[in-house]
Amino acid sequence: FSTLSFPVELSVLCPHRYSLEDEPSNLDEMPLMMSEEGFENDESDYQTLPRARVNQRQRGLGWFLLGGWKVLCGSCCDCLAHTCRRKKELKARTVWLGCPEKCEEKYPRNAIKNQKYNIFTFVPGVLYQQFKFFLNLYFLVVACSQFVPSLKIGYLYTYWAPLGFVLAVTMVREAVDEVRRYQRDKEMNSQLYSKLTVRGKIQVKSSDIQVGDLIIVEKCKTFNGHTNLFFSVCAFFPGACFIRTDQLDGETDWKLKVAVSCTQRLPALGDLFSISAYVYAQKPQLDIHSFEGNFTREDTDPQIHESLSIENTLWASTVVASGTVIGVVIYTGKETRSVLNTSYAKNKVGLLDLELNRLTKALFLAQVVLSIVMVALQGFVGPWFRNLFRFVVLFSYIIPISLRVNLDMGKSAYGWMIMKDENIPGTVVRTSTIPEELGRLVYLLTDKTGTLTQNEMIFKRLHLGTVSYGTDTMDEIQSHIVQSYPSSQPSNGSSSGATPSRKSQAAAPKVRKSVSSRIHEAVKAIALCHNVTPVYESRAGVNGETESAEADQDFSDDNRTYQASSPDEVALVRWTESVGLTLVNRDLTSLQLKTPSGQILTFYILQIFPFTSESKRMGIIVREESTGDITFYMKGADVAMASIVQYNDWLEEECGNMAREGLRTLVVAKKSLSEEQYQDFENRYNQAKLSIHDRALKVAAVVESLEREMELLCLTGVEDQLQADVRPTLELLRNAGIKIWMLTGDKLETATCIAKSSHLVSRNQDIHVFRPVSNRGEAHLELNAFRRKHDCALVISGDSLEVCLRYYEHEFVELACQCPAVVCCRCSPTQKAQIVRLLQQHTANRTCAIGDGGNDVSMIQAADCGIGIEGKEGKQASLAADFSITQFKHIGRLLMVHGRNSYKRSAALGQFVMHRGMIISTMQAVFSSIFYFASVPLYQGFLMVGYATIYTMFPVFSLVLDQDVKPEMALLYPELYKDLTKGRSLSFKTFLIWVLVSVYQGGILMYGALVLFESEFVHVVAISFTALILTELLMVALTIRTWHWLMVVAEFFSLGCYVASLAFLNEYFDLSFITTRAFLWKVCAITLVSCLPLYIIKYLKRKFSPPSYSKLSS
Hints:
This protein is 45% helix and 17% strand.
């Protein structure tokens, strides 16, 4: 079991109130679809206007009858449910160490429950889910009517057996899923953890853990509650541990967690019970990236207060990667971050299912009309309403119950074929209900990093303002670093180790000296300003941790790997290693660098300011051991750093140049601090960290006091390589008529460059960059400017997008949908999902979202079809998606081949099953009209059951193997995909054609049998039923476009079953008659008349109006 949550999205889940900014008084005339009335209204934004107009409508009797009663009932039910399920208000808490009994409130059990039903609600719940669909409810009513003697038409089993089979299959499937969920929950809740008590360690189940318990979490153990760390034993860091959060936020890199320093100094574990201490923690929050609390120890004078942050926590669903952790439980069960952030995916229904549902309702209407006509022709004599219901039951085969069964089995078959396709290995179908959606997509919304790109960072460029170094000139940087640290220096790290030696400076020319010094400062800053930790693999042996620790001190290059939360940082540190300055060791208080000459430079870490999405930068304050100099290093995005560094005339231009090359840029700067400056800062910083209210704002304000007039050192450029075959895949999708939107959190320039390099935007295509807008007037003018552009790709930032959607949602979506490609940069996960929903609402077209990280989950679940890639950011997107692939290039075959086949096959299968029901209903109508409109069934008992099952089921179901175009042809001519999105394979036109065919064939079969029979009525049944079976088998052959050997087997097997069963059907047939030649020629003649004209029409249509795919295949 893994509880999935979505980071970055959480901060914007809460409603955010916007204020209208200064409206320009003189706006140009805007030829958009916005009314003047709406634009002039300053009291509400654009989104509320349509709602206001709806509310102003008269709610009279007409409104109530036309659907208002549904609205009122729904509102009442929602209100009642809300009252019954009123949630307890979440509050901040005080947790005493090891004393759960001191808790003031009762907190939820630490138990996981993912079951939908319990033993009492299972049967009612499953039945409700089935009968809320029109098709199943209709058959239930028809089957129940057979218990009324006056309405009984035939044997009960002819109605209840098919319905019972469908319900039994559904119940068994649900029961199996429910049992699996129960077993997974039980396994998770029964996991044993070590609990620390006064008497020592005891084993407790996960479900028995309480708030206030002291829990010991070992290496490679997943924890199911939320703790604050008090002890930590780690091979790399004393008082810290590494955790993996891939099941929580999709990131696979290790993260460093730090123990509370006060308790870390205790001599033994048991001493935790001898102190009087508590944790004050904020109320349970959605945000997994922040935590505010205080640790207080009362039994000392003065009391010890220590602030707690995200670095001191271990969230549920995270894994301890190294070390052993002792922590106090703060949140349990439903109040953990992982459960609070659990997103429940909507129940997706395919477009084909909705279309079939509409056709089913049309058939029901036709059935009722036909029954009324039959009663009217009777003259409404006697109990006509009873006869009306009997006719409705008689014609109930117009809507076949086998339709749902056949389609569900077909979907399962398509899923199996997709997973067995050797050309797309590793593909997993997680939602078997919507494979046809793959053939109906119009919009593809894709993530950038890890989806179009590999998320493998390579250092490409270093720019110092006057000189730039690329991959081919890195050896020059290496030589400068070697000169800066000559081998004659002592290995203990002297003062000259931090600056280039006087001798090397004197020997070099003036320009060289200046450049050498700047290179040295830049490389040292990059090597120091990060959150990277070198990890050394343990050697083979029995001592485990000990040998790992020894290897740590060995600093050998062979077994060193780097761990960090960002692949960009790892790329930077690997680059500094390649040019000679290697990070060899790091703990909580210091880090060590190794120079080209082998000497070790030690720097003490005084403060670290981690990267956040709001600040877009990270900083570190270090003190050099040899000189005692204190330096503040900072690196971050150019938009954040531009106002922090000293004035320069090259940063903005070079950032733009690097972004155009597709490089991710970081600006590096430094500031030297005196001892007095640092002490003043530290006092203010510690004071801000202890505050409970507005802690984040106060801490940020103190840090910003340092971020002034910093010395700009360099600009770095890191490349994220494209995935394999991204360009041909995007070109294939574009030729198929699919519009591709790239939604990314990266900066505008980088996103634009990747869009060009990946050929998302073709080289000869114009790009319109939507200028940043912050209010309604600016959005008005910019939309006017965008409207004048034709056939150009759109690039827009998340902030501007939000403003446009706030005021001009409909207009913006209408203009954006006309673009061949759209790039949305600086997008939050919530905005990604919002864009998907906008396209669904405004275009009514099918959307597909593809991504690889936890921040793509909301977009994937919102789309009609979600595709996840198993990437470096973990499996969260893959697990949440409907389809999981291993590489982006596989999406081409998934859509062009499997999407096409699934849609075409289901359309043919659904219509043929309906034809099978309509043809027998037509025969029943003809029979009743000839015999004085009597409501008597033509075929009874086993004949009807056999007709829907063994006599025709296998050939009809074999249509799931049919294909109109070979896979190679579908990939070679992706333009064929455009026809699928028009829905021509299943429409009212094709449905009416099948209705006409059914009426023609049913009439011929019935009239032919009545004309050709001689003496007994039983001969009519034998002739017409046999001709019906042969007609259905021949019609399957007529429908098939590409024969498969299993289709031939199905045809002959069904025919053999019917012939063999004739010996046992003496209750319905005259066995002496069906063995005569008269029976055979009459059956053949009727079958020929019913099928031959259709074969001729099909031949002529193929000859004079062939479909597009047949032209290609010929």
